[in-house]
Amino acid sequence: MSRDYTPKEVERFWSKADTSGRCWLWLGSTNPKGYGYFSYRGKSRRAHRIVWEMTYGPIPDGMLVCHHCDNPACVRPDHLWVGTVDSNNEDKIAKGRQARGMRPFSKHPE
Asked: pLDDT per residue over 72-93, tens digit each?
């Protein structure tokens, strides 16, 4: 779904980011995993998905916005890429970030 962001919404978004470092860090609300959230027209949405839309346009249905930098708080557009669940998992495995061993509430070791 295409979203049109007003200049005021764009300004409000970027006022919540620190763009001084290699990763541009979200300073607003985050979830326990570190992903930023931004309130957009009465709905809370992940900040990295919003910045993708503001920079590159609509996110195709069923696609994820992933981080090259593996930093969930990062909202730097050139650190993001669009991928499937499978391609995101392949990226995670290639970088050695997959969970190992028994996890709580898991019946099988991974």
From this structure: 999 999 999 999 988 877 877 7
Q: For 13-41, what is the mean pLDDT?
A: 96
Query: Which amino acid is located at 8 in the chain?
Result: K
What one-letter code names the amino acid at 84? T
What distance in Å separates the CA atoms of residue 46 and residue 39, rounded to the nearest whole number? Answer: 9
On whether the pTM is more than 0.85, the answer is: no
CB 19 within 8 A of CB 35: no
What is the Cα Rg of the chain in Å?
15
